[in-house]
Specification:
The complex is a heterodimer of chains A (about 220) and B (about 100). Chain A is mostly helical and about 220 residues long. Chain A has 6 helices and 2 strands, in the order ααααββαα. In chain A, a hairpin with a 3-residue loop joins strand 1 and strand 2. Chain B contains 3 helices and no strands. The chains are: A mainly alpha (about 220), B mainly alpha (about 100).
């Protein structure tokens, strides 16, 4: 393997002295944005924590109505997509343009598969009368408390799905533009940071929502 | 200067680790461990997060300032969760007066 990069060298903006300094600034900027995203999801996680603390039985009963058969495979799909994303970043760093496009494509497809499974799952939830304010029927005690669980479920997974959709858009733009002027690996690296973050959000949503009541 | 990217073996090992942790977390959820089910599930999620953050998000070889920013996000989340829940958990009227 030659060391000659298949992509042109990075352009250094005038406020930076070196490529390395610019690279660090870009990465720290993305991490700062992700810290605000932690706060964004954190507020809802706090709602969940309080409500589960206040209504433990209702939350376990409500969680029992979700299907691990949807949530589990979807977790695996997202973990696979993080793996292909990491390989895309690696390909970008090594200047392998074809591998970069292939891994970005694989990540996009896995993201779409995740959204498709989520769509089927939402449909199942609707058929089973589990959508608050739209069609919610609950037999047994704690109907309003269970409704709070499902409100949190739809809000958290809905916002997460929006993030996945935005991520797919970003990766598609990278894959499209990368074919013509793959400038450097920083755009791929920081888009990867966003994609991995969205994966981490799901890593916590999965046990909190799906696994709370299966024992 | 560009650092050499991590080896393929590293990425594959991390990925296998993540899938194994996923299988453990699903299996553990079906065993009744009383009050330990939730801490175990969250502990596994934290372990997965560390794998993703350190290896896939390259925090391991990241700058000191990146560590501080990532740590600050985590620290402020803990303030949000722990201080708020400490309040709800220690006021005798908190949960009893819950609205529903």
């Amino acid at each position: 393997m030659t060391n000659r990069p298949a992509m042109p060298e990075t352009h250094v903006a005038h406020q930076f002295e070196t490529v390395e300094q610019q690279r660090e600034a870009d990465i720290i900027g993305m991490w700062t944005f992700l810290a605000t995203e932690v706060m964004f999801f954190g507020g809802l996680i706090l709602c969940y924590t309080f409500a589960r603390f206040a209504y433990p039985q209702a939350f376990e009963a409500a969680s029992h109505r979700l299907y691990v058969g949807y949530g589990g495979p979807n977790t695996a799909i997202l973990l696979c997509s993080s793996f292909t994303m990491a390989l895309a970043v690696r390909a970008a760093k090594m200047g392998q343009r074809n591998a970069l496009t292939a891994f970005l494509g694989a990540t996009i497809l896995l993201g779409l598969a995740f959204l498709a499974v989520k769509g089927f799952e939402y449909h199942t939830d609707y058929v089973e009368h589990l959508v608050p304010r739209v069609d919610f029927k609950w037999d047994g005690p704690g109907a309003r408390q269970a409704e709070i669980f499902f409100w949190l479920y739809f809000t958290l997974t809905g916002l997460h799905a929006v993030h996945v959709t935005i991520g797919i858009g970003i990766l598609a733009t990278l894959a499209w533009r990368g074919r013509f002027y793959a400038g450097n690996d920083i755009p791929v690296e920081i888009s990867g940071l966003y994609w991995h973050f969205v994966d981490i959000v799901w890593v916590f949503l999965f046990p909190l929502l799906y696994l709370a009541g299966h024992r | 200067m560009k650092r050499a990217p991590a080896s393929l073996v590293t990425y594959i090992s991390v990925f296998v680790g993540l899938i194994v942790l996923l299988l453990i977390t699903v299996a553990a959820a079906y065993i009744d461990l009383g009050q330990f089910n939730l801490p175990i599930a969250l502990g596994i999620s934290v372990a997965k997060t560390l794998l993703i953050v350190l290896f896939f998000m390259h925090l391991r070889e990241g700058a000191r300032l990146t560590w501080i920013v990532a740590g600050a996000g985590f620290f402020w989340l803990m303030i949000l969760l722990f201080l708020a829940m400490a309040d709800y958990a220690t006021r005798h009227w908190g949960v009893q007066a819950a609205p529903f």
